[in-house]
Hints:
alpha+beta, five-stranded mixed β-sheet, 20 helices
Amino acid sequence: MSELLKITLPDGSVREVAPGSTPADIAAAIGPGLAKAALAAKVDGELVDLSRPFMADAQLALVTAKDEVEALDLARHDFAHILAEAVQALFPGTQITFGPSTDDGFYYDFAPAERPFTEEDLPAIEAQMRKIIGANKPLRREEWSREQLISRWKQQGESFKAEWAAELPGDEPLTVYWSGDDWLDMCRGPHLPSTGKLDPNAFKLTRVSGAYWRGDQNNAMLSRIYGTGWLNKKQLDAHLTRLEEAAKRDHRKLGNEMDLFHLQAEAHGSVFWHPKGYLIWRELEAYMRRAIDGAGYREVKTPQVMDARQWEQSGHWGKYRENMFVIPDEVPNVDDEGPVISGDADWMALKPMNCPAHVLIFRQGLKSYRELPMRLYENGCCHRNEPHGALHGLMRVRQFTQDDAHIFCREDQIVDEVQAFCELADRVYKHFGFTYSIKLALRPEKRFGTEEMWDKAESELRAAVVRAGLATEDYGWEELPGEGAFYAPKLEWHLTDAIGRTWQVGTIQSDRVLPERLDASYVGEDGEKHRPVMLHRAIFGSYERFIGILIEHFAGRLPVWLAPVQAVVATIVSDADDYAKDALAKLKAAGIRTETDLRNEKINYKVREHSLQKVPYLLVVGKREAEEGTVAIRILGEQHQKVMPLDEAIALLKGEALAPDLR
């Protein structure tokens, strides 16, 4: 008789089972309620199917809907497979490719047999998916060889899957999952026990787009179908409500309505800022300059283009070149005949980040330990060669400006400097009304530097957050293994907006690699040369993205100090035109960004139009107001108005128009 295996449960109890027993067997032994609720299992920390047999003693935790992160990922993965099965049932000859889960749902890429899919196809596909879910088909795992997979896909006419299977390892078993006995896909898994574990009313297909096979524009164009998937209908409904609200707040839509900026194909991923939009930028820039001046930073400006050899030395050329815009260091051919460039010139690159240039400033002249910390700040314009399909309004661009700074400090100054930055970031985010969480992104698999170096850098960042009092549940403190940069761990600030979305914005990274690679040094108290530690830090992240976040967070109703137009004086009758002009002059003299609306239009029309422009204050004046020296103030979003003397109104607006750090 085989020796029993010892399976330890989260409460410390141990169950002895025969080899070949499964997590599903243990769930059933504990009770029918758990057997029904169990969706998957964690065996020694690895997420696996309930049907995977135990091969040795193990730690076991059963996953149910209460374990929302794991349960949602499983459900979305299954929805993706069911989407593919449904599409192939409805559209014979369609080839399948890949279908992962996403942060709020799933998608699958298809090569249709006849025509690309459209939004009109989605209701029928949804209905077929519900049939598959209702059939409660078992999801069964099998191990196949690479040759079996290639043969299967070729027999089925699945050329994309066959191509992918040919690249998989040939010396290890590969896995497929059957849905019932008639449909399969190759997949690492895990999956739910059966399709019936999904709620048929907890998903919705949302849109269709084009996508290149394997993300390469030289490959075939596929049809990508997106969906959102949840554990129950209540979660789905809440998500759809959030999507509706997000659509109303879309910064691209509001940016157009408020005449803030535009984007166009002549400059992919670069923003054309209009006067009103650039006023927001200037206010943010002035605010940040006051903040960094008060914190002891010195502002610099560095070149846009640098020699490729500099990027080679920094390490970016090898690890980041695909995201860089490179240019030849030569005069282009001006003749009509022949190539524009020779191909023989040395390469230069538009800077994708500011840090190497800041090291070059630090290296100018001998630095003493007494001069540290040295805090160099730059509103640095950078360029990154993002794929066209990844660009998204202000949120993902190719040209952007960072509120970037680098702190060169001694080893004994690191924790103090990081703590000071944490406190500065806290003040800034609170001025904008944001709550946030802090994450510590730890060493990635591919990295520069020694293990000792990474141990020290991670512990320093952790200690600084603890000293700042921010490593608590109130600040959502969390550590993220494997998510640091290739040269340094980093702290990340994740802002929560008005409708509950999170945005990763600020960051500080503790870097010992770049000073070494670029030979930065200072003379220590002992008279010897030492390497500084380089802290990379930003609070806004980029002005473009931060403005996009602000527009969506406030639904365009920016705080008065940021509003491009803070007040409009609107007349009811033309008899009040002169008074409106006098009021305009006084408001402008008080530093309030004001316009007049003297058009021969009804006041309700003017109110509606300026409300759409998200003007915070509308000062309505008619004959009576002109005679009495008053204004009727309408505040954006409120129905009533209040009549007050003009001087009193100016005092009110003057206080609101000041940035929060100046009040």
